[in-house]
UniProtKB/TrEMBL annotation:
The chain crosses the membrane at residues 897-922, 1005-1034. Belongs to the MCTP family. This is C2 domain-containing protein. Residues 157-167 have a biased composition (Pro residues). It comes from Hibiscus sabdariffa (roselle). Coiled coil: none annotated.
Amino acid sequence: MTTPSQQLPPQPPKTVRKVIVEVVDARDLLPKDGQGSSSPYVIADFDGQKKRTSTKYRDLNPVWNEALEFTVSDTDNMDVEELEIEVFNDKKFGNGSGRKNHFLGRVKLYGSQFAKRGEEGLVYFPLEKKSVFSWIRGEIGLRIYYYDEIVEDQPPPEEPAPQPQQQPPQTEDAKPTPGLVVVEEGRVFEVPSAHMEYPIPHGINGYSHGHGAVPGYPSPHVMVVEESQPDVVHVHDELPPPAEPTPMPVQPRMAPGLPVPEEHFAGPEVRKMQSSRGERVRVLKRPNGDYSPREIGGNKSQGENAAAAGVGGAERIHPYDLVEPMQYLFVKIVKARRLAPNEAPYVKIRTSNHYLKSNPMMYRPGEPTDSPEWREVFAIGHNKQESANATLEISVWDSPTENFLGGVCFDLSDVPVREPPDSPLAPQWYRLESGAVDQNSGSVSGDIQLAVWIGTQNDDAFPEARSSDAPSVAHSRSKVYQSPKLWYLRLTIIEAQDLQIAPNLPPLTVPEIRVKAQLGFQSVRSRRGNMNNHSMSVHWNEDLIFVAGEPLEDSLILLVEDRTNKDVFLLGHVMIPLISIEQRIDERRVASKWLGLEGGGGGGGGSGPYCGRIHLRLCLEGGYHVLDEAAHVCSDFRPTAKQLWKPAIGILELGILGARGLLPMKTKGGGKGSTDAYCVAKYGKKWVRTRTVTDSFDPRWNEQYTWQVYDPCTVLTVGVFDNWRMFADVSEDKPDSRIGKIRIRISMLESNKVYTNSYPLLILTRMGLKKMGEIELAVRFACPSLLPDTCSAYGQPLLPRMHYLRPLGVAQQEALRGAATKMVAQWLARSEPPLGQEVVKYMLDADSHTWSMRKSKANWFRIVAVLAWAVGLAKWLDNIRRWKNPVTTVLVHVLYLVLVWYPDLVMPTGFLYVVLIGVWYYRFRPRIPAGMDIRLSQAETVDPDEIDEEFDTIPSSKPPEIIRARYDRLRILAGRVQTVLGDFATQGERVQALVSWRDPRATKLFIGVCLAITLILYVVPPKMVAVALGFYYLRHPMFRDPMPPASLNFFRRLPSLSDRLM
């Protein structure tokens, strides 16, 4: 057998790849045997092979040091194969009460995360939950690598080459000292202690220096930390045993815990390996996998949640009960006083896992330089177990010279814990201490005012804090936005008088006078005015409607134009501030007024000659709802005027847990794929934006938001985007990339029930349907179930009253919706951080009205599905009348006789059938809120040319031959629609022809038959007639003529108006 390090022959022989999973140990496992401990064992599943370790009896920190070997069946697809490590408690060693092996946690990895033999390292992975409601803690240490084994004629030995690499079992005392621990986005690496560097001795107050080393001292773990998520990063902070004493040079002492200036030392090369929840790239095994939402946690009602929290509700429920609480260490830096001379001081914050810096304080001219103010809050990922013996170091430095100005240190075990609604912790003054870095202790002086506490993402300071799992730029912070208050502005142009119309018009030429109205980017032109020859006034009596947004700072500009000739001549203009326009909330009549025109003849200014006057009626309509979303996915139907709002009927709670398996959206240094994802949710006027989690394909947000619900028949929209603006310069505007969105209809949620589900993020590109990942959400609609307020909402009109008293046209409302969408996008783009216009328009479905062959097909199949029940009923009746099942047909005869003989039972029986159908379909009710349906959207079967047409711009940017082909295809489709519409019109005209005497003989026959039926119904009892007609319809096929009946033949022969078409 040869090893991979040997030279391969020109023709490489067949090789077999082996994967070795060394299960080293686990820490801080959860006791689940009923006796305060656990007897853990590990099961590894990879490529269809399962291996198991031994059981460690009653040990919460077990040490296995066992190697599990797996054979890779397909080396080309090893990167997409999933390795699942699960830890269980062995019930055989419990108290005998357990009926199953309790789950202690799991870790999921992919083959792309494995290292080659010789490049592996010991990695501690945090144990993950199976669901949100699982209680798991601890971490497991694994060493995973692979190698290729050459297959020879002779069978390979039982133990492959990794035996020399396997570490023998070691006790705590015999454990070698690791040389370096690197933590990066939830990844922990240990390397051998060769060429070690040693720390500076402890200070006089007992806390040691946290950065930098000098040769000659045995070193504890050196932490090199990048920003990481607090819920996924678990740092190995166990200190190694002291090494043997070594001769060391005399070093000057330093004050406790104060870092020296940053120095870089040459260390051993560290190989990086991705962890299960840090920066894992989830590769989809099935490109056309399941696109349906799935449950990731038990969907429980409020009572079940209370029962799960503890018996009788004795255990406190976290305020963020829909998401996982994330512990953060908050540091609020306020200001300093009596500092040493400096130019631009800044603050360094260092823990064992993280390192953050504040912005430098820039002084104004003449401002004292000894009292800087920062007023910044930092949120650092905190783990209680790992930070038991850790310290927090806060030091002040001068930015240009990197001079040390002093620092303080805190023991994290003494930091207080704050949970809302506790009041904010008051900042305190702390004396700055000097250290060995500053030889002249007199240069360090002054105090710093700060506050340190431990909290969660529910803390009031979290939204504005600089988080350790997100960059410090403003574009990455979580924010809540409010849409602007929008009004409909109704302008009624009545007439204009004394206009300076050109007198030299040709004979019999009527002047074409129009009014052009402008409000911001909106511009509308009236129709041609009617000229009154007696009074020389022009009449319009036309309504123009605009969208106006608060604050009402703009002005409405009216231009009266003479468009008789080719050149437009301005007759006058008037400017009306919106703040001066009257507001109304009902249909009361608003007084009209005359306004003088200015600046006629192409000139401007208010000092010009008199140019006439115009009669107007203006009002701001508060009784309408200004639509900025498509009506079928609208999240709010309240009118603009707040006094018309009805009380809320419930509360909508949304927990944005995170995303899984996102695809790379950009490339960074070295061509590495990266995604910086954030989530946006919109309901009503309130928009929320989560913080941006950088460089992660599995971001965890765990943020919870609430909305008031006024109408249950509304839709919540949640979208995921990739942040590009955080990397853009101030001068350039890089739009954020869309990853996908979902919609949840509130009426589909049961009252007071938590839905915790994972939804696929789908997006339609020019190349077709693409799954971008999955988003995990927890939703609850808290409202009284089936009480008058909730039930009465279903009987109320969907839109406010003014939409029915003075309705708007369909085309007009669509144009106003486009203007409202643009105004909302412009408003939110002025926020800080801005919500990009591409984000707002994508969330509001601004392009939902554009033409698409795919959407047309989808709507056609929706109509077919709606009519499917009628087609099914017709087929069932046809089978009954054809006696396909004689027993069923006889039963239908009996039922028909009963209903005819007792007609008062027809209505109750019909409604009883509806009730029974509803009860029957209760078994098939949707268990979870549905997401996007790719089959309903016709996204799977879309033609490439059709989807290319859907993404085409207006006007089209395609070559003429492609446009001609698409136009011809559209003409063929329109011809089919034209034929169907003509057939509908023909049937209606034939019905009219029965009595219109267009065919005299047919009308005489119809009238005669109607007279005969009238006489028969007067003589024969109606029950007998109904029985005879029913039995005739259900007669046996042997008595049935295969040709069409005479009545149908008669109807088809009636004339229509189609023969008159040219």
